[in-house]
Write a sequence for this structure.
């Protein structure tokens, strides 16, 4: 009977391992991903390029301190907590070009990217209500490639990374989201320990228990780090949610060789603009070689100069129009913003003529 029971355990283990491997038999890149990868998927994996604030793209990226994405609800509202929308989340990214929504500039107030031998992760804080997560009472929730039905949360969500070399699909990852805090870990593909380092059974424990790290606001950095200890594993024992006693989080792993940057953003300001029906619609403006395309702009590196360019490109009345003076130029609504040298000379001649006429 002992031998028989052992055999059953062996075959059960083999079966479970086979099922786990079967779940990840398909490997994609963004360029060859089909429209959907799981039954019941509400978004798409064929996302194209650019960005769109109504995108239903379900491809996320975690590449570097200024190039990563988060999962968040597709629509706002008090009922759109992570726990209630985990199956339908969409990708919000810092960088343009993935076919996703953009994380609005200024939404992230601190980000810490750590590269370890076993995983990369980004942790931080911000105003994530700008990603449709309700304010106040959302304690957060967890997203991972498994989910209750094995199809992932979100269903069909794919994660890609170039942090380990060439861009590749990440099969083990975990992302916790609250309205003011986030953490996202991508575990090294091909490692037998990847499921352990990216454990997904502690969905009620939050970021700082699952991923002890730096969450300080006002700092944007990339560091080399130790892997530390896998979440929930304490020596020879493993904690499970619901156990009588909940252990403390592991100590924060050590890190070194940190490099800071001033901020993270996408050089594109995402704003809510009133539509003709009175509701808010998202608008994205992006820089072009000749100026600014779109209705509103902002640059993470040079917000002031970009705002001036936007005013010129849209002929805004708040542009540097000629002020009221004796030459009468302001009464003609002349704007000098963006004029060439020859245009400035012509304007000066016009002003001289007008001055002479007024003197008469």
């Amino acid at each position: 009977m002992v031998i028989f029971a052992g055999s059953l355990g062996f075959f059960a283990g083999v079966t479970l391992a086979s099922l786990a491997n079967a779940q990840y038999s398909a490997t994609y890149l963004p360029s060859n991903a089909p429209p959907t990868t799981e039954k019941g998927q509400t978004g798409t994996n064929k996302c194209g390029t650019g960005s769109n604030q109504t995108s239903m793209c379900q491809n996320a990226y975690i590449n570097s301190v200024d190039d990563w994405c988060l999962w968040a609800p597709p629509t706002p509202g008090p009922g759109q907590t992570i726990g209630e929308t985990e199956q339908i989340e969409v990708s919000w990214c810092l960088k343009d070009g993935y076919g996703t929504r953009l994380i609005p500039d200024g939404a992230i107030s601190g980000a810490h990217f750590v590269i370890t031998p076993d995983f990369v992760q980004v942790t931080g804080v911000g105003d994530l209500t700008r990603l449709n997560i309700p304010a106040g009472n959302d304690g957060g929730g967890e997203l991972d490639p498994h989910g209750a039905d094995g199809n992932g949360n979100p269903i069909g969500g794919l994660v890609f990374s170039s942090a380990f070399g060439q861009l590749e699909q990440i099969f083990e990852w975990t992302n916790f989201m609250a309205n003011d805090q986030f953490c996202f870990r991508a575990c090294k593909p091909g490692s037998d320990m990847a499921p352990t380092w990216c454990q997904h059974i502690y969905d009620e424990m939050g970021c700082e228990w699952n991923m002890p790290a730096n969450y300080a606001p006002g700092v944007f950095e990339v560091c080399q780090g130790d892997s530390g200890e896998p979440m929930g594993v304490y020596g020879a024992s493993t904690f499970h949610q619901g156990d009588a006693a909940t252990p403390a989080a592991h100590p924060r792993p050590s890190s070194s060789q940190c490099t800071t940057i001033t901020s993270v953003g996408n050089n594109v300001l995402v704003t809510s603009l009133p539509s003709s029906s009175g509701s808010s619609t998202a608008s994205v403006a992006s820089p072009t070689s000749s100026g600014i395309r779109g209705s509103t702009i902002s640059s993470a590196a040079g917000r002031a100069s970009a705002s001036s360019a936007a005013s010129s490109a849209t002929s805004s009345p708040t542009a540097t129009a000629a002020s009221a003076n004796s030459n009468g130029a302001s009464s003609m609504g002349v704007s000098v913003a963006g004029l060439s040298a020859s245009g400035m000379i012509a304007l000066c001649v016009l002003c001289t003529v007008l001055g002479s006429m007024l003197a008469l």
Observations:
- The first strand starts at residue 59 and ends at 64.
- Residues 1-24, 270-342 have pLDDT under 50 and may be disordered.
- The chain is about 20% helix and 25% strand.
